[in-house]
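Follow-up to my post from last week.
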Amino acid sequence: MNLAISALDYIEAIKDGEFTVEEFVSETFDQIKKIDGKLHAYLSLNEKVLDQAKELDKKRKAKEKIGSCIGMPIAIKDNICVKDTKTTCASKMLEKYTAPFDATVIARLRKQDALFIGKTNLDEFAMGTTTEFSAYGPSKNPWNQEYVPGGSSGGSAVAVSALESVVSLGSDTGGSVRNPASFCSIVGLKPTYGLVSRYGLISYANSIEQIGPMARTVKDTAFLLNIISGIDTNDNTTIDNHDEDYLKDIDSGIDGKKIGVISEMVGKGTDKEVSSATKKALVKFEDLGAKCEEISIDMVDYSVASYYTITSTEAGSNLARYDNIRYGFDFDLEGYEFNSYIAKARRNFGQEVTRRLIIGGFVPSAGHAGKYFLKALKVKSRLTKEINAAFKKVDFLVAPTVPILPFKFGEKLDDPVAMFLIDFNTVTANLTGKPAISVPFEISNGLPIGIQIIADSMQEKSLFQAAYALESTTNLPKVSL
Amino acid sequence: MVSKEEIEHIAKLMRIELDDHTVHIDRVQKMIEYFDILDKAGTESEELIVNEQSLENLREDKYEPYNDKLIDKLKHYKEKFIRAPKMV
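User reply:
Got it. Predicted complex:
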């Protein structure tokens, strides 16, 4: 059996009776047992999944109605709630938290008979770009285990890349789906803000984050978006997409389309291998009939500072609920005064979360808000205007997903500004609410490089067409496991 | 430059105890220092984009019973009440 099969091919194979759901899920579980000790993609596994697979096979035999996923295994980032399943956010604070409800995306996948194979590793509360800030230890990059897999949805990327799941879900606040997708050579989409419900996604910076699909092919990514997108009464920011079919006409090509290459994202600070891959991608786009031109977006230079100011501020509020009264409880109430009790409980947060909470208290506080938070919001406004103006001239904006190649563990851990700059090319889509996808494009000396395509709001359909066209020009080596 | 005392003061207000004091403060200071770049953006005159939602667009405000007894998930509670540490 070929575990490297795409989700769409899996569904066809099941329909054709090539194998049963149980056989496929069982083999996936064997793969996890074989390699996850090394790669650490998962924080917990769904022990009932084989029974659920058998149940689906029975239903199929009895010709009962079955959802469109027919038992397709999917891995879920551990900051998305799956009912009666541990949801830790890779934090000691939520070590014992079991979600009492399904996130909307989970309910929708469940209805289509997807099987939740396990919960994947992340940087604690999704704050990080390497998974090194997980309270349960980092995930390893399957392409080279000495290298980080990217983050924060690192576990979700590793699971798909290392054939430990067919597809996965991540969440993207500043690049957390696209960055690990790029580092692990898979596809990852950050949808338009509001296209996918955030109900049941544990909030970090709710004004800009989105749940995003991750898969080995662009088509699978579109298939997943078909299922999880659309309006939800439980998330008032969701937009009605009129049940758009993102798979339909995905092979329409990009002949005659205009592509803007963001100058600020291909300049200084870009590794030469990444630079050269980007140039090659532009040649491919031209071969496909698109016209490429450089386009300058001034505010990109300030986007990372704006992003961290805004997200830390929102984290300061969103994480205030972890007070050991509603979540936590590893010690008794007796002998504590209210504030000291909460302060002691908050020691359960790891170092990066602690730092961002302090920043999140500092930058919007009286006396500092004018210098930091308000300026950050103004940069966000101006950046949005600049990007909107760019989309009057071009159909897509392109840049490398990450300016640098995957790097070794510990390499950037002690340099917060170097860590910031990893997000340089991804935060713009979050701050402006635009959809962006990372497509695997090259393997340079054994290390993956992804190309990012950004489209205007709600233009996912044409974004997938561009991504599919670029993907079709590549023939990448398979990861050796 | 932001002083360490200012950072410590905010941490205290955020009810955060700093275990490894200097490491955290130094690093937070470096992170905030990077934000000085915002001064150069020249966006002082920029107006903020505000998303307005009219009340009609909000979900109907009605009581929906939840079947599971959620309070059972807490360790410290009595009947319908959550128990918290004393305030004074």
